[in-house]
Amino acid sequence: MPVTQLSVFLDNTAGRLAEVTRILGERDVNIRGFSIADTADFGILRLVVNDEARAVDALRAAHFTVHEGPIALARVPDVPGGLARALAGLADRGINVEYAYAIVQSIIAFGMEDLDAGEAILRDEGIALVSADELKEL
Amino acid sequence: MTTNLTHKIWAPAWECADRGDIRAQQLARLRETVAYTYRAVPHYRAKMDAVGLKPSDIRCLDDIRLLPYTTKTDFHQTYPFGLFAVPPAELTRIHSSSGTTGKPTVVGYTKNDLETWVELVARMVSLAGVVASDIAQISFGYGMFTGGFGLHYGLERAGATVVPVSSGNTDRQFMFMEDFRTTVFISTPSYAAYIGEQARLRGLELGKQLHLRLGLFGAEPWTEGMRTRIEAELGVSATDNYGMSELCGPGVSGECVIAKDGMHLAEDLFLWEVIDPLTEEPVAEGEIGELIVTPLWKEALPIIRYRTRDLTAVTTAPCACGRTSARMARVRGRTDDMLIIRGVNVFPTQIEHVLMETEGTSPHYLLVVTREGALDTLEVWVEVSERMFSESFSRMTVLRDLLTKKIHSVLGLSVKVKLVEPQTLERSQGKAKRVLDKRNLE
Questions:
Q1: How far is Cα B98 from Cα B19, in angstroms, rounded to an integer?
Q2: Is there a contact between B419 and A111 if contact means CB atoms under 8 Å apart?
């Protein structure tokens, strides 16, 4: 049950991140988590929001390049070694985690090439996954 | 009746002359031209006086470099007749070229000028292989544009039968082509490409409905790829030719149908130079630079050192056709579009080519030139379209690096590719802005 993550292309000029958050705020979109990967020239902003369709509309209207892609949201136990156990499970089965970041309620967003296998493994490890419907209510 | 298709050299005395004789003729005519222009055109006299130059200072061909250039601006400043050496009433004909901004460029001819021009075009069409038995259909627009009338009288002089159909009306073009058994087609290369496409779509067959054997295509730049396509579709041997209204119109140079290896310049009547457009120093023979032309024959509108803004290379090596005249390469582009970075010539079209052939890139780009210390830096800004955007950071980096590498191999120059958000780059009506040269702003 992957959920949709939005990736937004940003060039590294002042105020672009502020602009994205302003636009989303004005459209009543709640950001539940985000991460930024950047080089000197450009960055990719990854977002988990409560209303992805509305967010995409708003950003595209403002001429942002937006990509929608699946990620896994996992309720990794908030205890010492919790994340380590989840990652070890994935690594043991040869699943490559491309990126990961924490969102609200210590939920971890995982970007993985083989998402289905990854989710299955996380479940095997006893980790609860967050569905798209649940995400709206977080 | 047997058709004699032997290629004819129209003016062998000059086209095949000893190069020393050509230079002697050029010098004699240059001195006359400069003296005449100084005497008859106050605008030129003022320009020469401003640099303290007298006509008698021109003693050898290299002295031409002492003379000020003529540019489009001179035409604008003196619109309509300020550069003319004779009063308008004494002209036999007036033409003009469309001005992309403001007023058109006005050119005029005396009776003698028209006679020389007709001979020049007869020479040019003979280079292209036209002979007296040909039926030539002219699809250039007639009117103020020099192309239609220029080719018309030159082809008549060469003995061809002229069909002045003018531009447009494709149905009528094909009807006359078939019914008159037209053998020579004259148009812009882009119209020829369109006609070729239409001929194919309409199922016209070479030798049945189409009897063309030659195509003379000029008035805009085109490529070898286009030549190959047009030749196959229309069954012609296609040649390029060059001219511009400021110099007279068509007839400045044209390819020979034998070698198709550069356009033979009518050197007894035009003195050419090729310069680096920035330093204004002459480039070595065969190197690309801006073509500067001084007509050596004009009564009504003598022009000294016209900056054509066209980029080409000229060679004086002998041609397989037997002519000794210098040949200019296909026009590579316009100086207005060219950038010189660390001594390397860069055209926006080269970058465009790389972007077009690279999967997933957008055609929206901007070349930004900056100078850090003494070093010029070229940045290529490419808009990131949704199609090329991926959430994967590494894939974006790979794409950027791939573009950097490809552009480097095409230009021989390392550039910095910068991915930018869509709509970052200025959009303009029609012509896109492709270059931002910040070096001039410092």
A1: 36
A2: no
Show which of residues 369-428 on chain B sit within 8 Å of chain A, judged by CB atoms: 384-386, 389-393, 396-397, 400, 418-424
pLDDT along chain B (442 residues), means of 10: 64 96 97 98 97 97 96 92 97 83 85 98 98 96 92 98 93 96 93 86 92 92 81 96 95 97 98 92 94 98 96 95 95 77 78 76 80 83 81 85 91 89 61 70 44
Residue pair B216/B241 in contact (Cβ under 8 Å)? The answer is yes
A69 chain-B contacts, CB cut-off 8 A: 391
Query: Residue B3: inside a domain, yes or no?
Result: no
B105 three-state secondary structure: strand
Which of A37, A63, A65 lies nearest to residue B393, judging by beta carbons? Answer: A37
- pTM over 0.90? The answer is no
Where among B310, B334, B358 does a domain terminate?
B334
ipTM of this complex prediction, to 2 decimal places: 0.75
For residue B422, the chain A residues in CB contact (below 8 A) are 63-65
Residues A41 and A96 in one domain: no
Number of structural domains found in chain A: 2
Show which of B305, B334, B363 is a domain's final residue. B334
DSSP H helices, B133-262, are: 146-157, 170-179, 189-201, 224-234
B249-255/B214-218 β-pairing: unpaired
pLDDT per position as a tens digit, A21-62: 999 999 999 999 999 988 778 889 999 999 999 999 999 888
One-letter amino acid for residue B263 of the chain:
M
3-state secondary structure of B186: strand
Q: Tell me which residue range forms the domain holding B414.
A: 339-441
Provide CB contacts within 8 A for B170, sequence distance 6+: B194, B195, B198
Per-residue tokens: B389: 């955007």
Chain A to chain B Cβ contacts (< 8 Å): 51
* Domain end marker among A69, A86, A118: A69
In a domain, B5, yes or no: no
